[in-house]
Amino acid sequence: MQTSIYTQTEPEWVCSRRSHAGDSNVCGRQQLSCHCPDLEGQSAKRGELGQAIHGEASRCTGSEKAQGCGTRRIIHLCWAEKNEIYVLTVVDRATHCLLSWDAVPERTSETLQACLERGPQARQYYSDAFPAYNTLYYGAPYEMRTDKLETYSVEAVNADLRHYLKRLARKSRCFSRRMASLIGNLKLFVYCYNHRQLAKRQHPKYSYHLIDFLPTLV
């Protein structure tokens, strides 16, 4: 699985735009405060996005506009560095537990071999057609496949990773800024995921969620 880590770098530009709605600044962002009355107790429709803003903005008189009744909206535009990170997983077909995992910047033979050796010895190994997999030592029969007939277990776990960890789902919305954050997120996921898989095998009639196994960390 491939993801990206975005890091903010210089230079940074600040663009501003003014609108007639207020001129206060809170924590780098502007608030709409052109004599806005207390909205407590009013209808829910009154607080809908855009309605209260436009309603109060229209109350600004000409003298207020002349005195600077406006909002300065600060927009930060920054360069972003994108570093590709690969999430390696070794998955047991019977339990769907993650036997070994890692997050690395490159899929070299050394990093793949280290991830493989951290897991227990298996009777049979399957992988996709990535060339580096064919250079590893498995200690057991190994088969490289171009289809997903024998790699469905690891593909299912990859789908669960993207489902539960939003930083792996959409690079345009959720992403990692630090490798340590990604590693910590994966470590917590693997712990809860493996415990859930084992519980489902032991009690197949019950439904479990990943959050059910968080208290066992204490």
Helical amount: 25-40%
In order across it, which strands form the biggest sheet? 1-4-5
Gross morphology is: globular
Cα distance, first to last residue?
A: 30 Å
| CATH third-tier fold name of the largest domain | Nucleotidyltransferase, domain 5
**Protein structure class:** alpha+beta
Mean pLDDT level? 74
| Strand elements, count | 7
What string gives the helices and strands in order?
A: EEEHHEEHEEHH
Work out the count of structural domains: 2
Beta-strand residue percentage: 25-35%
| Largest sheet composition | 3 strands, antiparallel
Identify the CATH class of the largest domain: Alpha Beta
Structure report:
With 218 residues, the protein is of the alpha+beta class. The chain has 2 domains: 21-69, no CATH class; 81-217, 2-Layer Sandwich (Nucleotidyltransferase, domain 5), CATH 3.30.420. Helices cover 27% and strands 27% of the residues. The chain has a 3-stranded antiparallel beta sheet. A hairpin with a 2-residue loop joins strand 2 and strand 3. The longest helix is centred in the last third of the chain and has 24 residues, at 179-202. The chain is globular. The two termini are 30 Å apart. The model is unreliable at 10-71 and 75-79 (pLDDT under 50).
Essential attributes:
alpha+beta, 5 helices, three-stranded antiparallel beta sheet, 218 residues, globular, single chain, 2 domains, Nucleotidyltransferase, domain 5
Short synopsis of the structure:
This protein has 218 residues and is of the alpha+beta class.
